[in-house]
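Collaborator request, handled under Task 6.
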Amino acid sequence: MIGIFLTAAQKVLILFLMIGVGVILCKRRMLSKRGADQINAILVNLVSPCVVISGFQIGRENVSLKSLGLTALMAISSFFVAILLVKCFFNRQAEGTRRVLKFASIYSNCAFMGFPLVEAVLGKEGILYASIFLAVFNLFCWTHGYTLMNNTRERQRLSKTLLNPGTIGVLIGLPLFLLSVRLPEVLSVTLDSFAALNTPLAMMCIGVYIAQLKVKEAIRDRQLYLVCFLRLLLVPAAVFLVMLLFRPEKTPFVSCMIQVCAPVAGMTAIFASKFGQDTSLAAKTVAVSTLLSIFTMPVFATLAQTAATWFTTS
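Structure tokens returned to the collaborator:
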């Protein structure tokens, strides 16, 4: 168990070294917030779909449809658990603050923090299951999350809910996987090359946001402690217990849990800006939870691997 923890901790440490590069680049004025926002747009619209499609380029003989379906069920249950838990908190805050804090507590940075750690711990097969989780994340984020952060009665169009970069990757990659279609080398190498950009670019962007964090202001904000407790500890712990009821296989279970225990989603700041909510608070939840996740993500990755191993041997 200690070996599993140290392995997961080492992978997280690598991610934080990359984040450190982003901090340095920002402090030396080599990468600004505007530049990070532009890189973030490239990550969301280009790199993320490439990661998903590339993840589906794995032989069907290695993965069963039952495992994929179970992964989808675990992902759906994880969001229902998070939504129900967070419903009990932040009900006394002002409306704008309440919306940001609830969203931050429910939605994890599964693509930018979860995917790199999943790939490091589980390899390409883990990314396949992570892609299923990401598709469910996008469905909830662009329906429930969109409504939660939007203080008007405007409804999200179904086309925008379903046709976003994350789900487009699944809509392309999943049929290729089901039909056992392997892309030509020219396309597969191109996809893999763009997919390889996900981890370093995402971590550098997070580093830029952390570099702009006002430490004293963050330390005094007690709301941030509760958000981090919910996002990094309570929600993952509750989801962990619920997922155990499925008696899942190791790779799908560990992949889902790594994404569940990731820090606050970057979409928190994006939606806060889009709907005129407290963008400063949103950015702080992302930055502080990301810093603290270096201690919590290895714990849950280890618990998931240990529990999955126990299931397979019992």
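The cover message to the collaborator said: "The two ends are 17 Å apart (CA to CA). Residues 157 and 200 are 33 Å apart (CA to CA). Please let us know whether this matches your experimental observations."
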